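Apologies for my clumsy wording, but can you show me some protein sequence, whichever is easiest, together with the matching structure tokens, please?
=====
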Amino acid sequence: MAKLKRRSSLTDRLGDTAGAPPPSFRDEPDDPDPITGVAFYGTTIIVLALLVLGAVWFGTRKIERHLVASAEETLQGAGINTVSASADGADLSLNGTVDSPEDVGRSAELVAAVNGVRSVTTELTVRDPVELTLSEVDPDPLTIAWTAAGVTVTGTVAPDSVAQVVASLESVFDLPVDHAGLVGQERLVGESEWLPKAIELAQIVSGALSEGQVLVNPAGNVAQVSGELGSRQAKRELETQLEDALADQYAFVSGLILPDAPPPPPREQVVELQANLDDLIEGKVVEFQINSDIITPVGTALLDEILAALAQFPDVPVEIGGHADSQGSEEANLELSERRATAVLAYLVAAGEDPERFVVIGYGESRPIADNTTAEGRQRNRRIEFTALEE
């Protein structure tokens, strides 16, 4: 009985353990948490996406900066310096001010042609024309003075013109040029008109005056030439040449003088001599042989009367002007009028007059007093005129 009881106990124990898993001699890990795995993979994907987006963003910004720089460089190369660009990807926007409505379209066309630009929008303002006018600067007078030692030039010109002015004056005078007083100034009014005129005046007087001065004041439309000449004739010829060069563009002020010149005669004497000369010439001409500077007897008879009038006021200088009709070439008529005026001077000097008293000039056909289409008119235009001068 006792043994059976023990067997039964062993059997019971074996039966209790029959459905249990066998014992293990290793530690097994616990099952992983599924939520933790999902979080890991999600974070990785977000980081990768951010890296890709960052690369794209920085790449786009680099492209935008390149397009903006290229657009502004293109505009500046075309002389448009007051327009800036901004970019939204390959789409550009222009902001700033331009001088004219045409510059708005031109700016857009220039930028649209830049490689990589997709579209262009403009928000440009056109400057008021009044603003443009006010921004221009009146130049200071340009003064060119010279002596045997050198040339000095002062005034304002465009920055790019400084070297040009210096080179031109060195060529004209063949002397060193001091240009310390020549200032470069942007946006000067009308330089292309008055600067070449100033150089032209210097060229005209450089051979006639060993020292002197040319002053051109564009703001006042005045030009003055100063210097000393040896005779009244040389003075008058140079003044005439300068007046012709200015062609009424500037008022000419003569600063030309004669050495030891006597004081000017009283105006009353000038007026009275002129009246006497006009009375003698009225209805008459100093007659010459046809197409010649030889004075006829009729012409010398009239000149003898002129001599008597001149003797009454010996201190009054006189201009002898030769004139021609329009037949023949202009050059030939000018040359003939000069020769005839010179022939009259020779006759007066041979009769005892001081040659320094007179100025001789030929006007050719430029100053008709009658109709050149008629024989009578042409005869009146072929004449010698006497003009009493105040100095």
Remarks:
- The two ends are 178 Å apart (CA to CA).
- Residues 1-11, 13-18, 24-28 have pLDDT under 50 and may be disordered.
- The chain has eleven helices and twelve strands.
- The CA atoms of residues 303 and 347 lie 8 Å apart.
